[in-house]
Every structure is written in C-alpha cells, then in structure tokens.
TrEMBL record:
Keywords linked to the UniProt accession: Cell cycle, Cell division, Cell membrane, Cell shape, Cell wall biogenesis/degradation, Glycosyltransferase, Membrane, Peptidoglycan synthesis, Transferase, Transmembrane, Transmembrane helix
Function description: Peptidoglycan polymerase that is essential for cell division.
Cell wall biogenesis/degradation as UniProt keyword: yes
Family, similarity comment: Belongs to the SEDS family. FtsW subfamily.
Name of the protein in question: Probable peptidoglycan glycosyltransferase FtsW
Class in the EC hierarchy, top level: transferase
Length: 415
C-alpha cells in the first residue's frame, strides 16, 4: 500500500502529469459521449429518419472539425491566442446580433444558424471568446482590481450586452452559463468579495425577473417547487421520467442499449437528459464514472492554473475549468431533481455539434497550458518531444517572459 501511494505521489510530481491527465479526460469523455449518443438517440433517429444512426452520424461528423480545433488550441502559442481575443469577442457579438435577424427558431428560441441539415449555435463560442478577452483585460488590471471601477469596466458592461442578446433569443440556459464565466473571471482575477456578493445578488434578482416574465420559465420553476407530475405534458414530466430512468438502473444498469426511457418516455434523451440514460443503462457505476471524470477535470484544471507562470493563462484555465465543471454540475443537478430544468448540455457527452466543437477547442487550450507549465517546458526542452507531438507539428513550448513595464514616471497618471 505504501509503495502504491509513493508511486502515485511520484507520478503526480512528474512535469507532464497535467498534460497526460487532460488528454486522458478528453479522450475518455469524447469516446464515452459518442457511445452514449449512439445508444440514447437510436429510437428517435429511427423514428425521424428511418435510420438508428442519423443523430450519431451527425455527432461523429462534428468530431472532425472539433479535433481540428483541439489541435489548433493545443498548437497555437498563448501570446498569439491572447492577441486574437478582442477580435474573437467582436465576431461573437456580431454573430449574436445576426442570429436574431436571420437565425432559425427551435423550441421557441432563435439561436441557430441553419446550414442545410446542420446548425450552428454562436452562443457556445461566445463563452470562449468572453473567457479569452475577459482574462486579457482583467490581467492587465490585476494591480488595481481592488477598485470597483477598474474591476467592473469594461468586462461587466460587455457581459451584460451579451446576456441581453441571449435573453432576446431567448436562451436562459446559455445566459446562466455566461454569468458563470463572468463570476469566475472576476473571482480568479481577485475582485473584491463585496463586489462578488453584489453581482451574485444582482444575478439572482435577474433570474427571478426572467422566471416571472415568461410562462414556460415560470412553469418550470413552479413545477420544480411543487413536484407536480399529474399532467403528462406538464413541465415536470421530463424531470420525473429522468428520475424513473435513474431508479431503473440500480447499481449495474439494465445494459448498454437496453434502456426503455428513450422509447418516447424521456424527451431529449440524447441531449439535455443523457445522464439519465447513462444511469439507466450503466447504473450507478456508469453515472459515478462520469462524475469522477469531471472531478478529475476540476482537479487538473486548477492544478494547471496554479502551476503556470503566465497570469493570462492562469485566468483562462481556471475560468474555462470552472464553467465546464459548473455546466456539468447544473446538467446533472436538474437530471437528478436538485435544480429546475435549464437546458444546459453535459459537455462532450450530450448530443450537440456546436457544443462538441467548442468544448474540444477548450480542451486543446487546457492541454496547451499544461505544456507551458514551467517544469513541463524544461522537461520538453531537455528531453525533447515524443513521436506523436512531432507528427502533430507541435513546437517546443517556450518559457513565459513577463512584459517589461515602464517606469511610473513614463506611464503617466492612472485614469
């Protein structure tokens, strides 16, 4: 037992452990997600298209550009990625405006660009754009983050604009996700706790207002609070069916592909409620495996942020990890009945092409940051890269060099 503990401790101290953990979590979640999408979508695919593989095929096709963006996120130098952050945010704002004008409507929300049989949801990419740009702005102001004006402007007004565009779609789930990005940015950047509490209170107040101003949102909240499932078409029907699926799974599940909930009992079984299918077909052990993978993601993300020297990479990694794990927690929370339904997907597991592609890019950035840990840089430069890294065209990471600051007399007064 002692030898095993020593071996694990030695491995955790290895300079490339963070990179190996990120790649392992990414690969396992991607493969697991594809398998579960195939299982959960087979019935709906056959009913709608005459083939049990139509939804799975679309998900698999999105893996192509997703892996390309993962490679790009892994390969691009952090300095260049940071330089592109303002352009990315500007494109994101224009895309959210354009989708309100020419976007297609699905489930009452105008949030997609339809391209033939495929669709793209720009709000998914906006989360990444806000993370990269927000970190760029806040890192430059990290010495004055104790001042409310410096902490709030311009990140909070820009986020408020993005949230307004999302509410106009309307897409409450993505609005909540963007709020998580904002809170994580400010928290890890060192904003005053009083400011954080104020923003949290404002966010809760805004959520209450949004819930009261739309009938379908109000129905979800009231159904969650009352637990009413008498109406088979009511707002709580879907949540209750998810609980029945989890209960049927037991410890080991009914078997992969053998679940009954996807036979038109549980709507969106391959999308928002895929965790219920995991629990039904693979049981508690399968559900626990998903929780363990996201817990590992939380650990390795904070580890990478803590071990990096680049303040911008620190903030990007910590924020990206937080919203990925928080989105998974919200999705699992409403599937198991702890939260009202919000429509957020389970990253890399739920069916959804845009979400898959964007999340793969984020994992590429996390792996890139792992390669730029000081100890990893030294190890790679001393011992060289492996064959796979050379085949992928990855360049040796360079040590972080802090920008040279001008003397105070040359900078002029702080405005």
């Amino acid at each position: 037992m002692g030898r095993a503990a020593n071996a694990v401790g030695e491995w955790l101290r290895s300079p490339l452990t963070s990179l190996h953990l990120v790649l392992a979590v990414f690969g396992l979640l991607t493969v697991f997600g594809l398998v579960m999408v195939l299982s959960a979508s087979a019935v709906q695919s056959f009913t709608a298209d005459g083939s049990s593989y139509s939804v799975f095929t679309r998900q698999l096709m999105f893996c192509g550009p997703g892996l390309a963006l993962f490679w790009l996120g892994l390969r691009i130098p952090p300095r260049r990625l940071r330089a592109l952050a303002p352009v990315g945010l500007a494109v994101g704002v224009l895309a959210l405006i354009a989708v309100l004008i020419v976007g297609s409507v699905r489930n009452g929300s105008r949030a997609w660009f339809a391209i033939g049989s495929f669709s793209l949801q720009p709000s998914e990419a906006v989360k990444v754009a806000l993370t990269l740009w927000g970190a760029h702005v806040l890192v430059a102001r990290r010495r004055v983050m104790h001042r409310w004006k410096q902490a709030l402007s311009p990140v909070v007004p820009v986020t408020a604009l993005l949230m307004t565009l999302l509410v106009l779609q309307p897409d409450l789930g993505m609005t909540v996700s963007l709020g998580i990005v904002l809170v994580a940015l400010l928290f890890y950047a060192g904003a005053p706790m009083r400011l954080m509490l104020t923003l949290t209170g404002a966010a809760l107040g805004g959520a209450i207002v949004l819930a009261l101003t739309a009938d379908y949102r109000l129905a979800r909240v009231t159904a969650f609070l009352s637990g009413n499932s008498a109406d088979p078409l009511g707002a709580q029907w879907q949540a209750n069916q998810a609980l029945y699926s989890l209960a049927d799974g037991g410890l080991f599940g009914v078997g992969l592909g053998q679940g009954r909930a996807k036979w038109d009992y549980l709507p969106n079984a391959h999308n928002d409620f895929i965790f219920a299918i995991i629990g039904e077909e693979l049981g508690f052990l399968g559900a626990f495996a998903v929780l363990a993978l996201f817990a590992t993601l939380a650990y390795v993300g904070i580890r990478i942020a803590d071990r990096n020297s680049d303040p911008w990479l620190k903030l990007v990694v910590a924020t990206s990890t937080s919203w990925l794990v928080a989105q998974a927690a919200i999705n699992i929370g409403y599937v198991v009945g702890l939260l009202p339904v919000t429509g957020l997907q389970l990253p890399l597991i739920s069916s959804g092409g845009t979400s898959l592609v964007v999340t793969m890019f984020v994992f590429g950035v996390l792996a890139n940051a792992a390669r730029h840990e000081p100890e990893a840089v030294a190890a790679l430069q001393q011992h060289g890269q492996g064959t796979i890294a050379r085949l992928l065209g990855l360049k040796l990471p360079e040590p972080y060099r802090a920008p040279v600051s001008r003397p105070a007399a040359q900078r002029g007064p702080l405005r």
